[in-house]
Amino acid sequence: MSTERIAPFGKALCAMVTPFAADGSLDLAAARELAARLVTEGCDGLVLNGTTGESPTTTDTEKADLIRAVREAVGTGPAIVSGVGTSDTRHTVELARQAEEAGADGLLVVTPYYSRPPQAAVEAHFLRVADAAGVPVMLYDIPGRTGTRIEPETMIRLAAHPRIVAVKDCAYDLLGSAKVIARTSLAYYSGSEELNLPLYAVGGSGFVSTVANVAPRAMRAVLDAFDKGDTVEAGRLNALTLPLVERAMASGLPGTVTMKALLGMPVREPLQPADREAVDGLRAAYEELVQSYT
């Protein structure tokens, strides 16, 4: 394993929401505007069509249209990673090829959900997708949603595939993640904001952040301080983000709902917008974070 930090998509990635118009249709103009702002404010890359992007309720055509629109908006520099994972291996392969054709630089592939396949089947699924892909693959380990963990030993075996290069880590197992980091060259990206700094400190590559939709500079500043060797400042900056992180990600509402509440964007059913009390709390936490940087 290299002693240098591996970050194939950069270190600060935003799990971007998918903007919809008032009538529920895909709002590509708003997507272009949001994507351009996020890159300007410090995001190295954007993860589209993920959980935060409401991928369960967007069509295959909408997913491809979103990739093309965002690529047009941000140019060729920032990385675009597209979620393609489904519970069906064949459909996932189709989405992977479609995303690549639309201009994605990488693919986010979640563990097949609901059917809860055993580890051998999980491994075979990822290998099948990686074999069919022509761009790098980021595995998405989020057992709280899928019902199935990508076990560390499975991850270590998958790391041998030349196109499996990264992990979005939402397993809440820092020990397991640290073991895989130590034994492979997989780039580990935190998908849980409260673990961004701890995972980075044990060799992680960065984050894929939902909260970065509204606070990209603040989320990135934590890792920038760490990279400068100022771990005390990194800890201080990390503490400043925690009230908003807690409101946004641990309030019982999906991150998509809380981010869109702050952005003033509608969600698609079955999701429902945040109520007034939740919105007020989110805005207060957001304003507190903004004021700490002014």
From TrEMBL:
EC class of the enzyme, as a word: lyase
Keywords attached to this entry: Amino-acid biosynthesis, Cytoplasm, Diaminopimelate biosynthesis, Lyase, Lysine biosynthesis, Schiff base
Residues the record lists as binding pyruvate: 52, 208
InterPro entries with a match to the protein in the record: Aldolase_TIM (IPR013785), DapA (IPR005263), DapA-like (IPR002220), Schiff_base-form_aldolases_AS (IPR020625), Schiff_base-form_aldolases_CS (IPR020624)
Molecular function GO terms recorded: 4-hydroxy-tetrahydrodipicolinate synthase activity
Catalysed reaction equations from the record: L-aspartate 4-semialdehyde + pyruvate = (2S,4S)-4-hydroxy-2,3,4,5-tetrahydrodipicolinate + H2O + H(+)
Active site: 140 (proton donor/acceptor), 168 (schiff-base intermediate with substrate)
Pathway: Amino-acid biosynthesis; L-lysine biosynthesis via DAP pathway; (S)-tetrahydrodipicolinate from L-aspartate: step 3/4
Annotated site, Part of a proton relay during catalysis, chain positions: 51, 114
Leader peptide range in chain numbering: none
Cell location: Cytoplasm
EC number: 4.3.3.7
Function in brief: Catalyzes the condensation of (S)-aspartate-beta-semialdehyde [(S)-ASA] and pyruvate to 4-hydroxy-tetrahydrodipicolinate (HTPA).
Protein name listed in UniProt: 4-hydroxy-tetrahydrodipicolinate synthase
Species annotation: Streptomyces solicathayae
